[in-house]
Amino acid sequence: MSYEGWIILTGSLVGITSGITGCFLILRKMAMLADAISHTVLLGIVGAYLVSSSLEGIYMFVGALVVGLLTAFFVQLLHSSGVQSDAAIGVVFTSLFALGVILVSMYAGKIHLDVDHALMGEIAFVPWDTFVFAGMELGPKAVWMLGTVLIINIALIVFFYKELKICAFDPEMAVAIGIPVMFMHYLLMGMLSITTVASFDSVGAILVVAMLIAPGASAYLLTDRLSVMLVLSAVIGVASAVLGYYFAYLYNVSISGSMAMMAGVLFVLTFFLSPKHGIVMKWIFRKSLTKRSA
Q: Cα–Cα distance between 221 and 281 in angstroms, integer?
């Protein structure tokens, strides 16, 4: 595959993986928790490096998963103790992220992991960091990592689809019929954690938030069915990656930033032009209703 193809494939995998995971966050009104976990997993990656002295994918996954779950646990603990949810997210997010930054500065300054690398990423370098097996180059490591996470997330969604759906739309009913709501909550947080860390080398922690929220939010405005919403979020994620790459190519700007910007542009277009919930369609409907009344 060409250099351009690998970049577009990597961005598309980020869009699909983040998009389908973000749908459940939006339905459960937990979008800002995605922002929190996307930053606090820096602490997990640094902790994994300090323990293992390695930045291999498995150690990053474990570290990110542990800290992601801890973030969700601390937020839930503070919220259940009477602290407002947004305040709980703010306290946990800033504290754990700041601790990660301090550990990077103190103990990880001599490796390629730094705050800018973790937050911004650089997708242009992805095709050069390849996975080698038996002397053969099998493509970028980021593609393999994102592909693995995508398979894991899809498998979990398919296997727990009914439970995740009921928990997203009616948590009280889920409790009443015996669904383990807290297990589903932490399962979703685990999916979010590994999705975030898998995207570090491509779009970075800050920009992955756009892919986690914008495609799902756009799909939410286009359909009332969860299954269709998941498919649409994946399609919008891919479209954001493709359009973002060519925008960056034409104007010689950041590829990751362009992909995130295009996700926002597609959301704005959906916000105005959605057939059912769009501002323009609502205005047309009100205008026609006024004419009929007159």
A: 12
Side-chain-facing half-sphere of 43: CA atoms under 13 Å = 20
Question: Residue 140 belongs to a domain with what CATH number?
Answer: 1.10.3470.10
The neighbouring-strand residues paired with 121 are none
CA atoms of 208 and 110, how far apart (whole Å) = 25
The pTM (predicted TM-score) of the whole model is 0.86
**Total count of domains within the chain:** 1
Instruction: Examine the pLDDT at 291 and tell me if it is beyond 80.
Output: no
**Number of Cβ atoms within 10 Å of the Cβ of 196:** 29
Share of the chain above pLDDT 90, in %: 33
Q: Tell me how far apart the terminal alpha carbons of the chain are, to the nearest angstrom.
A: 62
Alpha carbon dihedral 97, 66, 141, 144, in 10-degree steps, equals -130
**How do residues 56-94 score in pLDDT, each as one tens digit?**
667 777 887 888 888 888 988 888 888 888 888 889 988
